[in-house]
Specification:
Layout: E1 14-18, H1 47-59, E2 64-68, H2 78-86, E3 93-98, H3 103-113, E4 117-121, H4 127-134, H5 139-150, E5 158-164, H6 173-182, E6 185-191, H7 209-220, E7 224-226, E8 234-238, E9 245-249, E10 262-265, E11 270-272, E12 281-282, H8 284-288, H9 293-305, H10 325-328
Parallel strand pairs: 1-2, 1-10, 2-3, 3-4, 4-5, 5-6, 6-9
Antiparallel strand pairs: 7-8, 8-9, 10-11, 11-12
The chain binds S-adenosylmethionine and iron/sulfur cluster.
């Protein structure tokens, strides 16, 4: 079938599927301390609905699927969904982004179901500062989850994601850089984006990838840039002695929109063509009203044709997205 192409000629190869808007953390850069209402059960797509959409997307050339949330591991029976998606012809790369707190129990079942890659969020290696940021005292559980993931060589790479916030993350950089050298984890720093529910993001709170790299190079000497896929969101670097890998995801200081090949599906079945979209495309209705796969394809093509050229974080008059990060699926 004709591949899925947007109005600017970019081919869509990757979908991020949010399986729940719920979360057991309350990261300050993502959720409010309390009071975000959860979606009702009937609003959330079933595993069968998600698998059908992924099957249709795979027939259009989308070969990369990442499960996210909210916290995807709080969705009951998640390994059953992984198994369904792993069995779809055309899904080449199936991964998961998690806060890691339930991973010690679930890594084994997820790998058995066919998961091959994992990203674990970890912003601090200090108990006090971890709790300050996530509003949960769960650092040890996350580290246990990572250790458990390490036991499965089929689950690689293991990526550790840190949201970089000015005035906070500088202090974490040495320990996180060491983590990348001491463990088989690729440690990645992600620039803070205006997707926090509290709407407290300001440009001067962004600690850029360039600034973090400079901090690391002060201590370890020049890093060596490693090749990355054209559509990759991260720039990859190795330490000069060949031990350890780092990644820098710089959506604010170095936007990568021109090579964006992603779309997102929210837990309630809305297609988003950009993290910063102001508009969503309802797929839950066609999934539930007896529409055919051909009709789904038409709805997907129409939505993708309208994909935004780029985000406008750095432009005057930037308007925030219609939902915050945990509700979209990062
Ligand atoms: N709960 C899971 C987790 O934390 O990994 C998956 C969902 S979370 C929304 C996905 C990713 O988005 C995480 O790596 C998180 O750190 C990142 N994130 C959340 N809010 C962000 C923000 N305002 N700017 C940049 N990244 C953010
Ligand atoms: Fe939850 Fe992930 Fe958002 Fe933290 S970043 S509040 S873990 S969804």
């Amino acid at each position: 079938m004709e591949p899925l192409r947007d109005g600017w000629g970019r081919e869509i190869r990757s979908v991020r599927v949010s399986v729940t808007d719920k979360c057991n953390f309350r990261c300050t850069y993502c959720m409010p301390a309390e009071g975000l209402e959860w979606l009702g059960r009937a609003e959330i797509l079933t595993f069968e609905e998600i698998a059908r959409l992924v099957r249709v997307l795979a027939s259009l050339g989308v070969d990369e699927v990442r499960l996210t949330g909210g916290e995807p591991l709080v969705r009951r029976d998640l390994p059953a969904l992984v198994e369904m998606l792993a069995a779809i012809a055309g899904v080449r790369d199936l991964s998961l982004t998690t806060n890691g707190v339930l991973l010690d129990r679930l890594a084994g079942p997820l790998v058995a179901a066919g998961l091959t890659r994992i990203n674990v969020s970890l912003d601090s290696l200090s108990h006090v500062r971890f709790a300050e940021l996530t509003r949960r005292d769960a650092l040890d559980a996350v580290l246990r989850g990572l250790e458990e993931a390490e036991r499965y060589p089929e689950l690689r790479p293991i990526k550790v994601n840190c949201v970089a916030i000015k005035g906070f993350t500088e202090e974490e950089v040495p320990a996180l850089a060491e983590l990348a050298r001491r463990k088989p984890y690729v440690v990645r720093f992600i620039e803070f984006m205006p997707l926090d529910a509290d709407e407290l993001w300001r440009e001067d709170q962004v600690l850029t990838g360039g600034e973090i790299r400079a901090l690391i190079e002060e201590r370890y000497g020049p890093l060596v840039e490693l090749p990355a896929k054209a559509s990759s969101t991260a720039r990859r670097y190795g330490f000069a002695d060949g031990i350890g890998e780092l990644g820098f995801v710089n959506p604010v200081s170095e936007p990568f929109c021109s090579s964006c090949d992603r779309i997102r599906l929210t837990a309630d079945g809305q297609l988003r063509t950009c993290l910063f979209s102001r508009r969503e495309w309802d797929l839950k209705t066609p999934l539930r009203d007896g529409s055919s796969d051909e009709q789904l394809v038409a709805a997907l093509r129409n939505a993708v044709a309208h994909k935004e050229l780029k985000h406008r974080i750095n432009e005057r008059g930037f308007v925030r997205a219609s939902r915050s990060m945990s509700q979209i699926g990062g």
